[in-house]
Amino acid sequence: MITAPQLEIAVLVLGMVILMFEAFATKIDKRVLAYAAIAGLALVFIATFFVAPTPPPNQATGFWNFYTADRLSIFFKQFALLTTMSVLIMMIDYAPVVRSSFPGSPDGLGEFFAVPVFTCAGLMYLVSAIDFVFIFVSLELVTISFYVLVSFTRRNPLTLEAGVKYLVLSALSTAFLVYGIAWIFGVTGQTNLQRITEALANPNTDHGAALFGMVLVLVALGFKIAAVPFQIWVPDVYQGAPTPITAYLSVGSKAAGFVVLLRVLQPFLMLPQIERLLVLIALLTLIYGNLAALPQGNLKRLLAYSSIAHAGYLLIGVVCLDGRAVVFYLAAYLLMTLLSFAVLVIVSQQTGDRISDFDGLGKRSPFLAFAMLIGMISLAGVPFTAGFLGKFFIFYAAISQRQIALVVVGVVTVGCVFYYYLKVVRAMYWESAAKIDKIPVSAAFIRSRFWMR
Amino acid sequence: MVLFVIFCPIVAAVLIMAGAPARKTALAASGLTLAATLFLLASFQPAQRDFQHVTSFTISPEWHLSFTTGLDGLSMAMVLLAAIVTPAALWFAGKIEKHENAFYACLLFISGGAIGAFASIDLFFFYAFHELALIPTFLLIGIWGSGNRVAAAWKITIYLAIGSFVLLLGLILLYQSLPIASRSFDIRALKGAAELGQISGDAQRHVYLLLLIGFGILISLFPFHTWAPEAYASAPAPAAMLHAGILKKFGLYGLLRLAIPLLPEGARHWTNLLVVLLLGNIIYVGLVTIAQKRLDWMLGYSSVMHMGYIFLGIASASILGATGAVVLMFAHGLSIALLFALAGELRKRTGTLVFDELSGLAKVMPFAGLAFGLGAFAAIGLPGFANFAGEIMIFFGAFKNGWEIGRFHIFQIATVLALWGVVISTVYMLRAYRKTFMGALNERWNGLVDLRPGLRVPVALLVGALLCYGFFPQSFVRMIAPAFRTYLSANK
């Protein structure tokens, strides 16, 4: 049997091996490294199905004090591996852009393929973390590797701007996280979530101070999941970053944020203020994300704002504490977002990433357009797609908890959702612009999981 | 057999998208669907109250979710309507300039989605099948529409999306208002629970309001009706035929299927509101229809107006009224499809549908004039057409029955007012007929050609069905009425 920590160790070793090859085998085509990384991650993915169970958290000792391998974490480890593999495939398609951004110098493609492996290890640690210190450390592993990836094509001023913005704001949110952890530790004397729960149950504990610490932690997590009012960085960074990295950010980083949020909230549920605060954040996020997405003309920016909107829908699930709804929505979101980005990576190299660059795609390359159509209507939530089931479970949870305000705002904003996603459909099928010939479909990886069952 | 009727259009749509010859495949599929539906009709046993031809595939035992299809009298009538209108619409579609395959695939998706919704016994699929039509409608109006097609496409899509999500909330609330042990998406199980009184009065009122708003947006209940005339005026004729003829009936079907049997308490509570709104449909929209200056807009508004009568039948909550509502749904679907088809043919030939520019067309297009006259008379509700049978049943049912509200009988007032709607519809239909087909022929239109003989087949199909059930409505009523007998009393 395999124990859970071995998975992360395997991923880390894989990353280092790829880095070594990158350093010493200079003559090879660097894309071989990406294929190797995908193969290695696929092996780890298979291994996740044979993980031995861990002791329950209340009798855990030693290492298991801050690391758990419950079903939620195993699922999200698979989620992280799947995301990373898909992103690596997109990166292979994207390689010419990276190479052309370093004219003259030997290409930096090797690192481009190696760093996501480390991000993946960070994500996998993060979803297993049940101790604030461990959460912090693994979150930093994820964030620091994203610093590198976001600003990878650094000759491009937009990318550079994105990198700086991400670096500064991310560092700020990290500071909030550490400060919040310090307050919580100061009040309870614990960093383990289970022990914090026990400490907070004690009436002598200062709940006000613990709440203050928790709010600071929420600020940091709000940054990760792109909830209003911590969403300012999202549009610029999403637009400026290399497209596969944008996909990685919007799926991997967001999923990790939500898993940590679900875990961290557990001890603080007895404080009613937290729920009210989350309802408020969810409402703001829904309204802002959906309204701001309406006028966007650039598809990457549109997806950035819509990812804020999706964070709003996910927060409804978090407020209702329905872990299953959140998990399902995240899984559906993973599939449909990666599908959309996979099409975007191919199309944007031919024409560009504005919505008007998709004009007439239905005629130029029907297959890509159809894939994009499926991605878009799934993101919008049309039945018979995974996105609809995600929204169904979220609304189901909200109605059973009688969160009237969230339900009303959620349904009204659906009108916006349909408008901005169908804008892309409109461009592909209504408009006729024949600037360029057929886009070859060979590079597209076909994902068939988006039709439900 | 029911599965074949549902999936024949959908499979044909997929085949057409994959490259099969569009028109032939579409017509063959819709012909097969019609044949299969007629077979189902012939083997249908009207006396039996339960669903017939039931097939079921369990999907999630935990949620009591299964893909279950079957027909009772009510859904049989609706499936028959869809099976008749679809081949007529496809026949009228003719040769399409751009993306012919996508056009026919979209039409077939709408048809298959509607049939699926009518034949589903499971709420989840009832809902999901209807949504199958949303994106094709958007594309049909957006790509092949005329006039202000962009605005119309956005309007209909956003209205319908919000309406269907409100509806979804209502369905979720309905599901959750049952005790956990008897939660199910199966309509038969829901009926059983409702008979045991497991849905509390409070829950019924909330659910009914959500369903009324959700379905109301889909049906174009006043004041949520503004999307309909614009969309139907801009849509290509076959899309308008399918949408106004079949798809809009989904909401009414849903109210008859869910609200009356499951939520009698809620229906009673909101009757006053519904009566006021439906009078808005009949009187206000009726007057707006008279003011229209274009044929396509007038037809769009008239289809909104006629929804008011059907609502009156549903609100009356009597067997006579509800049965009349179904007859009128069927008849209206046929007559409005015929009128939209002819308006589309006129637009193809003349390029305009403004009344002031058209005149005396019956001289050059006698057959079209005759067909339009028949359609217009059917829409007015002249005896001999199925519309008359439906309207008279609704008026009788509403006047005599209905729940007593307070001291005065609101339904008698409503019926008296609604009868004026017949006068209003006579005014606008005859006006339109006179301005378009009668009078002196404008010289511009000397060269117009009449409908070719090939196009007379779908006209004959639609008119034939209208006359057939107009002269023999009893055969239809015998099929529908048992579906209501268990939960509506005949003599109250």
Provide an overview of this structure.
The complex is a heterodimer of chains A (453) and B (492). Chain A is mainly α. Chain A folds into two domains: 1-270; 280-453, no CATH class. Chain A is built from 17 helices and no strands. In chain A, helix 2 (31-47) packs parallel to helix 4 (109-128) and helix 10 runs antiparallel to helix 13 (323-350). Mean pLDDT of chain A is 84; it is low at 440-453. Chain B is mainly α and 492 residues long. Chain B has a domain at 270-492. In chain B, 73% of the residues lie in helices and 3% in strands. In chain B, helix 7 (149-176) packs antiparallel against helix 9 (201-219) and helix 14 (271-290) packs parallel to helix 19. Chain B is globular, with a radius of gyration of 21 Å. The two termini of chain B are 39 Å apart. In chain B, 61% of the residues are buried. Classes of the chains: A mainly alpha (453), B mainly alpha (492). Chain A binds chain B through residues 362, 373, 377, 380, 382-384, 388, 392, 395-396, 399-400, 407, 411-412, 414-415, 417-419, 422, 425-426, 429-430, 453, and chain B through 59, 99, 102, 127-129, 131-132, 134-135, 138-139, 142-143, 150, 153-154, 157-158, 161-162, 165-166, 168-169, 172-173, 176.
Write the SSE topology:
The complex is a heterodimer of chains A (453) and B (492).
Chain A: H1 4-24, H2 31-47, H3 71-100, H4 109-128, H5 132-150, H6 157-188, H7 193-201, H8 207-225, H9 233-240, H10 243-265, H11 272-293, H12 299-319, H13 323-350, H14 361-364, H15 366-380, H16 386-400, H17 404-429
Chain B: H1 2-17, H2 22-42, E1 52-60, E2 65-71, H3 73-93, H4 100-119, H5 123-131, H6 134-144, H7 149-176, H8 187-195, H9 201-219, H10 227-234, H11 237-247, H12 249-262, H13 264-269, H14 271-290, H15 295-316, H16 319-350, H17 366-380, H18 386-400, H19 410-437, H20 453-471, H21 473-485
Antiparallel strand pairs in B: 1-2
Helix pairs in contact in B: 1-2, 1-4, 2-3, 2-4, 3-4, 3-11, 3-16, 3-20, 3-21, 4-5, 4-6, 4-11, 6-7, 7-9, 7-10, 8-12, 9-12, 10-15, 11-16, 12-16, 14-15, 14-19, 15-16, 15-18, 15-19, 16-17, 16-18, 16-20, 16-21, 17-19, 17-20, 18-19, 18-20, 20-21
